[in-house]
């Protein structure tokens, strides 16, 4: 349940930026290649926001798909798992450019 | 009056919503959720560099034989290397007691319900223990291949330990851990004749995820391969 730690991290960041105001909406960037289990995340969220400025906040989550550049042939492509092979040459020597995001993008306060 | 339903409250509702919108404030944040952890990890890394400590984050699932490997390593090399150990455990001090019995300086972090160590916990452990300078610090993470993957502790090397009793598809099930590790130890190879485990397949799976991953196969029971692990430690030390 590292999802709880992630949620606590989000609460810390949001609390700092909300400056005491109740939060209406939180927008997150969440890459598809991060190991966040959404069910566990939702459970952790419901528990952890109680009694905080985020208690009434809705979550707007941008799922960002995985992208990689092949270090052998330079091909750029979409990946679903970190162990996917280059779609052109089959190499696993990849540089992941997108999909690892775990970021609070913005928030709306009342 | 509203043309659609004939009510005359529409204007009011509209203006109400409108006013409401004006009281809201949009704030751009653009901040990494793990920012705080990464900041403290960088601080730990600076501490290790300054004291010339090789910090190794040891991760595995339960039953990989990680603590046994650690015990064996500490005992075999204690004349040659100054070891310190941070032991992450959810409840008991059992593993820390085993390490203590080897005569090694050890501090335990009780994570309680927490399923992983983070940089903050390690920072406090460091303040209390004063690990040996010019030595090796093992940080034995909580036995779990999912949660610890995202948390940089400031280590120089991340070592993932798996055993042949776990299945050769283990890397594919926990790609993030294998992706972020520098070395994979495949343990208990003395049991290979008795289990449906293909070394070649396991290594190929691990390399698919991380082509730069180094692999050492060994057994703490027969002692086979331990020399390679000790050489690896020596090579990373200076
Ligand atoms: Zn390619």
From TrEMBL, chain A:
Zn(2+) binds at residues 70, 73, 86, 89. This is Hydrogenase maturation factor HypA. InterPro entries: HypA/HybF (IPR000688). Belongs to the HypA/HybF family. Gene3D superfamilies: 3.30.2320.80. Signal peptide: none annotated. Keywords: Metal-binding, Nickel, Zinc. Ni(2+) binds at residue 2. Involved in the maturation of [NiFe] hydrogenases. Required for nickel insertion into the metal center of the hydrogenase. One of its GO terms (biological process) is protein maturation. It holds the Pfam family HypA. PANTHER family: HYDROGENASE MATURATION FACTOR HYPA. GO terms for molecular function: nickel cation binding; zinc ion binding.
Automatic annotation (TrEMBL), chain B:
Signal peptide: none annotated. Pfam families: cobW. GO terms for biological process: protein maturation. Residues 56-216 form the CobW/HypB/UreG nucleotide-binding domain. One of its GO terms (molecular function) is GTP binding. Keywords: GTP-binding, Hydrolase, Metal-binding, Nickel, Nucleotide-binding, Zinc. The keyword Endoplasmic reticulum does not apply. InterPro entries: CobW/HypB/UreG_nucleotide-bd, Hyd_mat_HypB, P-loop_NTPase. Belongs to the SIMIBI class G3E GTPase family. HypB/HupM subfamily. This is Hydrogenase accessory protein HypB.
